[in-house]
Write a structure and sequence with these properties.
Length: 556
């Protein structure tokens, strides 16, 4: 991998350069934006590591040039590496086009893993773009070439939707290509996303409009982002990549199993129909524009939240269902759909009932538009979630207490943070609190090892020269940990209170746990301790400082 490091601190740049070259990368260091522009103009790079505060400007404002102003077919992914912890800075970086963000001081191993992950996602997205371009070039070619294009598209579309019990879907294309597509997947916190997208028109041109949506939606779901965030990112991508006369209508559903809620988004689609247990109907009309019309700064997704206990089925579809005309030029219509749903019973699946009546109505005529229908059986989905989570019935009772004690050389070589993360996954701890707990565990365990057992002082990290000495001294002492040294960790989780407790005791002589309310710019140490205070409900340090206990509470 060929990497350009845009960093004005020579020592830190050298540390990054040495580490990356040890991982078989070819690196160039540029200390200013001007020097970076020259390198990017004359050389091709696979990855950009970018500092924010540079002598001739802010790195954030240089991202757009990297993405759009260099003479290559495809710009490289950009990862910001900066001492800025302000979330507004992170948000601005992503809005400018950054692919990821790391705050100094950082773990070089984490940096490498993030680089590999970003590059992998970047390559997959580039491959999908290439497939879309390939499909577009085949639009006016002969039937044999169109068949090949259809095969490529269907292969891509088949990866979007998983076979999930309780999610019944029906798709029928009006031509060789379908401009409607379903996307379904589970987020890291267990939430289920089921989305139906309908591109302008039908056929190949509509199918191509859908393709740019693929990588964005799948990647955002995998990152555990909310429905509103996913919709906003999808709109941003379509605004950039679709012609002005193309747009995509979208229905997005997010099942929040833990809170027993469902988030609904309807942008430019027919009403979402909720069949209640008492056979009544509640309709949720479109409350937002279709994607790809409004500029990102003007687009505000409207999300409706409903509770799962009152809903039996969520039924939604593309306009190809209600606008289809029979031989008497009569539309199937929304009223007919409502009547079929209201008169349904458990003897026939709701989706089958609607499709069978539609088939009779249509008299085998050709479809005037692509047809997609989805029936979400809420009770079935809730029961399946509880079963898969090994929870036979909804309950918040119980408590988990787990302890791990390490001694000797295993202290420095064991992935205890990963161990606790796997435990939380097995316990189905919600994703948001699990992610915060992971950050806190990593910092506390690092502090206990570095300052407690290895007896390394934070004052060594007052500048980058001292920071390098700190890393060398740590590596030396890791190889000399005595068998008498111990690291004792206790984890507790109580679902009823949505709280995680974590206590860590090291065999060192103790260290000063001084959490500052505000870190000075450029500080190389202490930021992790400040972060712990911000993320925890309570932090308690027992004298002489070799035992720390924290309580982490879910925010909602």
């Amino acid at each position: 991998m060929r990497v350009i490091i845009i960093e004005d601190d020579a020592l830190f740049g050298e540390i990054l350069q040495t580490f990356l070259e040890d991982n078989n990368c070819t690196t160039i260091v540029a200390e200013t934006i001007a020097a970076a522009k020259l390198q990017l103009k004359t050389s091709q790079f696979d990855f950009v590591l970018l500092d924010n505060h540079l002598p001739d400007g802010n790195g954030i404002h240089f991202i757009e040039h990297i993405k759009t102003g260099i003479p290559f077919d495809r710009p490289p992914p950009v990862m910001m590496i900066t001492a800025d912890e302000n979330q507004n800075v992170m948000l601005e970086a992503f809005e400018q086009g950054a692919d990821d963000f790391l705050v100094k001081p950082l773990s070089l191993d984490l940096l490498w893993q993030k680089m590999l992950r970003v590059k992998s996602l970047y390559e997959k997205e580039a491959k999908l773009k290439e497939q879309a371009q390939h499909l577009s070039s085949m639009l006016n070619k002969q039937e044999q070439e169109e068949q090949l294009a259809r095969y490529v598209y269907e292969h891509v579309a088949s990866t979007l939707s998983k076979d999930i019990k309780g999610v019944d879907t029906y798709l029928q294309s009006s031509s060789s290509f379908n401009g409607d597509v379903f996307v379904s997947d589970h987020a890291p916190n267990g939430n289920l996303f089921v989305m139906l997208a309908d591109a302008t028109g039908h056929g190949l041109s509509a199918a191509i409009s859908i393709i740019p949506l693929v990588a964005t939606i799948k990647a955002m779901i995998r990152k555990g982002l909310s429905l509103a965030h996913i919709v906003h990112e999808a709109n941003t991508k379509l605004c950039k990549e679709l012609p002005d006369d193309k747009f995509v209508a979208l229905i997005g559903i997010e099942f929040k199993f833990n809170s027993r809620n469902i988030d609904l988004y309807n942008g430019g689609m027919p009403d979402i129909i909720a069949l209640q247990h008492d056979k009544s109907i509640v309709r949720y009309p479109s409350t937002s524009m279709a994607l790809g019309i409004l500029d990102p700064e003007d687009f505000e997704p409207s999300i409706t939240t409903i509770e799962t206990h009152s809903v039996k089925n969520l039924f939604y579809f593309s306009d190809g269902l209600i606008e289809q005309q029979n031989s008497q030029n009569e539309e199937f219509g929304m009223d007919r759909v409502i009547a079929l749903i209201e008169s349904s019973d458990d003897r026939e699946p709701l989706l089958s009932r609607v499709v069978n009546h539609f088939t009779v109505f249509n008299e085998m005529l050709e479809l005037q538009d692509d047809l997609s229908i989805c029936d979400l059986q809420v009770e079935v989905l809730m029961d399946a979630y509880l079963c898969e989570s090994n929870r036979p019935k909804p309950t918040n009772s119980g408590k988990v207490i787990a302890s791990i004690k390490l001694s000797g050389g295993l202290i420095g070589s064991s992935d205890v943070v990963g161990c606790f993360d796997n435990l939380m996954r097995c316990l189905d701890v919600p994703g948001d609190i699990r992610q915060r707990a992971f950050t806190i565990f990593a910092e506390l365990i690092s502090n206990a090892l570095d300052h407690g057992i290895l007896n390394l002082g934070s004052n060594l990290k007052n500048d980058y020269s001292g920071f390098a000495d700190y890393l060398m001294l740590k590596e030396e002492r890791l190889g000399k940990i005595d068998d008498s040294e111990e690291l004792d960790m206790t984890f507790t989780y109580a679902p009823s209170s949505n709280e995680i407790g974590f206590s860590i005791t090291d065999s060192g002589s103790g260290y000063e746990f001084n959490v500052q309310s505000k870190m000075e710019d450029g500080a190389l140490s202490g930021r992790g301790l400040s972060l712990i205070k911000q993320l925890c409900k309570s932090v308690e340090v027992s004298p002489p400082g070799n035992q720390t206990s924290v309580v982490i509470k879910r925010e909602f």
